[in-house]
Every structure is written in structure tokens, then in C-alpha cells.
Fold each of these.
Amino acid sequence: MRILIVENLHQTSLGQVGIALEEAGAEQIWCRPWNAELLPAKSDGFDGMVVLGGEQSAIDDHIHPYLPGLARLMKRFGDDDKAVLGICLGSQLLARAHGGTNILGTARQFGWHRVARTEAALEDPVLSVTGAEFPIFQWHSDTFTLPEGAIHLATNPDVANQCFRVGRASYGMQFHFEANRQVVEDWSIGFAETIERMMPGWLADYERHASTDGVIADAAGLAIARAWVGQIRSA
């Protein structure tokens, strides 16, 4: 299987999603439109796509003019019945692609936070693999309204729309389920000044959170990743 990976920020890790794709023997085709690489016009030649996070908002078209085209491509993949995964910014773009409204600067979360499955998630082939509630990593300040017809799959008290599905296998996940403890540790080193400004004292308490919530989040994230990869239909 061939999977298009769209990077929106330099050196973004696939984490648990990468592990699941490697287990499935998937070929990863990376595209970096933030660095002027052209997105494909169609889904032809791919079996699915993953759109990763980034520091931009989903409607920063004036700074990142590729964003409208990326949103359209996500919808095109879904319309072609190919699996789509949007993580953080990717989830916000998926919401935009299907008519949701992006809401900026009102949904700040950072660190491991607990999310809960909705009742609809019990019948979902991906979110049903998790516990009823689980900690997972978050790093965002934006949110979105659910597109018409979307299935709401996960929520938490501060940011209601944590995960949704459109169609058979287009998933938007606001939380960073791909971010295992190694990824979070790398972020803690690479973005230490940013994190300390945003959440003073968090880095000093990192080890405690990583050894408790981080362990559970790693297991939940890998289960979700494997379940999503299971929705990919190879040509």
C-alpha cells in the first residue's frame, strides 16, 4: 500500500502511526507543501493519506496558500473511499474540507489530557479499540465545529470535538495520539523555551506525567494507529 504523508512543519514525527504503517508494510510518500513541494492533484496511486500537525491555523491561507488545496485533496481522498487521517492541524483541515468552521485561539490545551469516547464510538472500527476514557497528548489552541453528517467519536470537558469521522474512513483527531513518549521527549527538548513560556513548570514535572499518563497514552495511541491502518484498502 502507498500512503501520502503531508508534513506541515519541519521534522514532524509519525510516532505511533509510523510504527503501524511499518508493521503493515506501507510505502510512505512524503510531501512538504510548507517547503514549496507540490501536492498531488488527485488520489490516484495512493491508498490513503495522513495530514500531520503544524503551528499554522487551518485558515492561514494568506501565509500558507497551499492550505485550501490540501483541504480539497483530503475531501477528494475521502470521496474516493480512501482512508484519511488528520492529526491536530490535520483534523482542523478535515473539518474545513467538509464544511466545518474553524475557531481560532479559544481551545488551548497542552500536555496529557483525558478524553472520553462518545456512545457512537462504541460502533466505530477505530475508536472502539480504546478504553472508555484515556489520557492522550494535546498541543493546540484552535478547534472547529463538526461538519454536517460527521460522527462525533471523542470529547473532553474543555474541547468538545476531539475526534470525528466523515464517511467510511476519514478521521480527524485533534489530540496527538501519534505522540508517544519519545516524540514528546523530543518536543520537550526541541521546543523547551516555547513550552516553558506556555506552561511554566510543566517541563520540571515531565517525568512524573510521562511515567503515568504517558504509558497509558502510548498504548492507546498505538491501538488507534493500528486500527486506522486497518481501514486502508489496498488497490
Note: Helices lie at 15-23, 67-79, 89-97, 181-190, 192-198, 206-211, 213-229.
Amino acid sequence: MPQKKKKKALKNFLVVILLLWIPLLSYSRGYLFLIGGGKRPPEMMKKFIDLAEKVKSGKIVVFPMASSVPEEVGPEQAQELRDLGAHKVEYHIFNRDQALKEESASVLNDAGGVFFSGGVQSRLADVLRDTPVHKKLLEIYKEGAVIGGTSAGAAVMSEMMITGDEKRNKEGEASFSFIEDDNIVTAQGLGLIKSAIIDQHFITRKRHNRLISLMAENPYLLGIGIDESTAAVFKPDDTFEVIGMSNVIVYDASSAKREILPTHKLSVHGIVMHILKPGDRFSLNTKKVAEK
């Protein structure tokens, strides 16, 4: 083979190798620890602490901004983690202007874990989205940190975020009474999960209607409903494991056929539903229960 052709073949080979490695280089090595709200069993929270303390200094940062009383929730959540054995915990309360400052991101330096309290997920997203703190959060997640949250702190993790509001609910009617098209209000979340929408308090508060409605509108996404006192722990291999006391429900409408009626009611054929118990694992890639 002429020298010029050899060089070209080598160049092409190196390009192929680089393209194969790029996804691996950008691949997240962290964990997501998403709790559906309610009481948090000590054994469950200890697993969060264990994951955090395997990374860097093991410091855990609590963000309580979803709460209407973050000044109370922040120290309470930090103390809960200390009582369960966490060695270094601190909490920080930011408003939007503070989160936009570059120096604010330094609170996440050397962090092994971040925990978001419950409340209203839109409060969290409105403060942190597209700020230096958000950017740093994504960085430490890729570096191996565990990012956790309960209730609103779980819902905010998905790129398409349920806000808790609907467009056509009349005053006095029960919330999310119907499975309908174009009724559930969503917003942009923090984007740590791009292939699914997260819902919380799922079985306890009977939130099936709103998540099924969204799955019918967005069949390319999975719907993951996490019940109270239960967590879905997302791992670097794109699987998650159920831990805690109840269930995680997964809806897959990727192969379903739908029809939208003039009344906005939906007909959807072929939605797959998985009811996962503690110990079950699910693959986001195959959309199937993973073998143990």
C-alpha cells in the first residue's frame, strides 16, 4: 500500500476510534436518587449517604428552595443526614440573582452528593435552571456524584417537568379527573433525565391520569411514577433500581396508537405498564425489566 494511502487509512481509523470514545467521555458516571415523597426510611437515606461518601470529600449539599419555608427545611434536612451518619453536610438557600453569580457554584466544589427537598418543583427550576450552579451540578453528576431529591426534588430532575398544574381544571372540580390531550402543564426541569418524565407521590395520590395523559402526548418518553417512601436509584448503566417500601410505576407508550377526540379525551391502544417492587431493576435503554 502506498505511503499516502496508509496515512489516510490510519487517519480514518483514528477518527472512527475518536467517534466511538466521545460518548464514553461524556457519559455520566453519577447516580440519581429520586424519592417519591412521604416518610424517608432510614435505611434508604443511608444508601444515599453511602453513595455520596464514595466521591471526593463526600460532602453533601442540601438545596431547600422548593419549600415555602426553606429557612426551616434546610437545617432540618441537613440534621437528618447528620443523624444518619453523614460526616459533612451543609445547606444553601439561593434566589435567582444569587444562583446567576459564578461564585455561587463554588458551594458544590468537592461535593459527593446533593439533595433537593420537597415543595414546589417550579420554585427550584426557576431559581437554578441555566445558571452557573446548574452547570456545576451537571458537572459533578458526570464526575460521579449522587444527586437526590424527594417529591418536588425528584420531579425537577427530568427535562420535561410536571408542574402540578392543568389547563382546563374548573374551580371546584377534582384535579386531573380525566385522561386528556393538551391539559397537563409542563416546564423545563434541570435535565438530568432526558428520556423520561418523573412523577411523585404517585400511587398514594392517584396521579395516574396526568402521567398517562403526558405519555400519550409524548410517546418517545417513559413515564416514571414513584410512590411515597420509595426511591428509584438511577445508575450509570442507564438502569434504575427500586428501593424503599412501595412501588414505582413505568408507562411506555412508544408503540401505542392514539386518537384524540374533539373533546380532548384520548383513545390509546398498546401502552405498556410495569409495576415495580423494591429490588426490581429497569433498563431505560431496552424499556424492560432488567435481569438481576
Note: Residues 14-26 have pLDDT under 50 and may be disordered.
Amino acid sequence: MRTLHTILFFGLVSATLSNALNAQEPQTPAPTQNQIVVTAQRSGAPMWTIETPTGTIILVGEIRAVPESTPWQPDRLEEATAEASRVILRARPKFSPGDVFRLMFRGGRFTKLPDGRVAADYLNADQRARLAALEAEYDIDYDRRSFLMTGFDLLARRLDFDDDTVKDATDVVRKAANRADVPIDRPERFRGEDLLDNLAEAPPASHIPCLEAAMSATEQGQVIIEARGNDWRRFDVPAVMDNPLEVALGTCWPWADPDLGEEIRGQWVSMISDASAADGVTLAVVPLRVLAETDGVLDQLEARGFPIGGPDWRPQR
């Protein structure tokens, strides 16, 4: 019995000492909303804030394929994400096995001009001459390819804009949110069937602006890639928006499609507006072009009366 009393006594003393020591240890306070914003801003990505009665919304302006030479600090964005109440990220299209078969059987409608036609049937003399010069430079024949596929090939393979890059802000935030169990909200996903139907119904001429923008970017060479990254890091949003590479990416499908583009922008405005009623910090990563274009997300949010703080996104007049 004495042994049992002794064990209980020392157990009580141990627990008391442990509680006392724990009470003496400094507890790290939860970061304030302002501290989370400051941490996110230290990442170097351009962003805007909206103060609401119950919290703060951080809008990170994302560009695709940030060059390795761009001096930004994604680890700061990871830290801010881990302390956020929720994040909003873009959604990927939802493709089913049936959509894959549809693409296989209808692939020619997406990759080639219809009815045996060639580029000269649609392009004016100057446009065809520019395309011919690029064909000669890269030893490739674009004559039968769809203008959209030619534009993608010029940007991805000839200009090679997505080589030697670091993770996009979406990837950084998604992984950080998953590690910290921060809830992730996304816009409604587009069905693959709807996207394929939209693309199949678009007349070839509707993709000529994409081709022209891709030719302009490719003609200027890789110098525009680093310039775009540096302007993004300097928060010179109008310069990023005017960069030939950014213009090309925003001129090609699906962004330039009037129906899809409007729906994409509407989804972002709706989700950000809904987040204004939530408590705490909402961190949203939004494509910069969707945010900062004329009548884009920032313009629409401002028109709804939201107070927006951050770099100027409008062209200087």
C-alpha cells in the first residue's frame, strides 16, 4: 500500500511540475490578419487586399511559368497560406473517359484546318508572310495546322516560354494548404465535353488573333520572358499586361472565347464577393490577366464598392 501511495504521490508531483513548467513556457500567439498579409506580400508576388467587416481578402496575381531568374520568395507565400482561414484556387477542367474518346475521334477538327484548306485561305498576305518566315526559321510546316495549335506550338516549343521555370503560385499555395489542412475552395469545374464542343464549334478565323499574338511573341524572342518576370516582380502590372507573351497567352482560347472568358471572370468575382462575408483571411490566387484586364475582376469588384488596396493595375493615361 505504501508503494502505491508513493507512486501516486510522485505522479501527482510530476503532473503538477509539468503543468507549472508548461504555464511558464511562452505561448506563440496566433498571427494577426495584418501579419498574414505582410508575410504574403514579402513573397514578392503582386497582390491586392480587400478589408471587410469580418476579415481580409488577399488576391495574388499569378502569371504562368515564372522564370527561374525572377527573384521571388514562394516560401513566404507558403507561410501566409498556412495561417489563412481558407484559400481559393483555379479549377482544372473535368475530363471523363468519354471525353478522351471524343478527342481521339474528333482530333482532326482541333488540330487541322477543315476541308483540306490551308493557311493562305484565311490569312492576308502580311500574316502569311510572317508565318512563312517562322516556318523557314524553325523548319516546320504550319500550312494545314489549325491556327490555335500553331499558336500553342510557337509559344511552347519555339519560344519555349515554360522552360527553366519555378512553381506557379497556385501550386505553392495548394501544397501549403494541404499540409496545413487549410480549406480549399475552387470555382465550378468546366466539363471536358463542354470545352471540346466549344472548341470544335469555333470557326478557324476566330483563332487568327491568337496566331498573330503568338507570332509577335515568338518574333521578339526569349528576352520578353525575363522582362515579363521582372515586371511582375516589380509590381509593374501594366507592363506585364502589355508584354507580348502575356498578350498572347490571354488572346488564345479559352481566355479570349467570349462565352468561356465571361464565365471564368464571373466565377472569380462571385467567389471573392462571397468570401467578403467570411471571417478571417481568405487567400485567393487568380490569373493576373483575369484580375487586371479592362473590365476584369479588379474592375468589377471595385464597381461593386469593394475597397481595393495594392499596385495600380490600370494602364497610365
Note: Residues 31-309 form one domain.
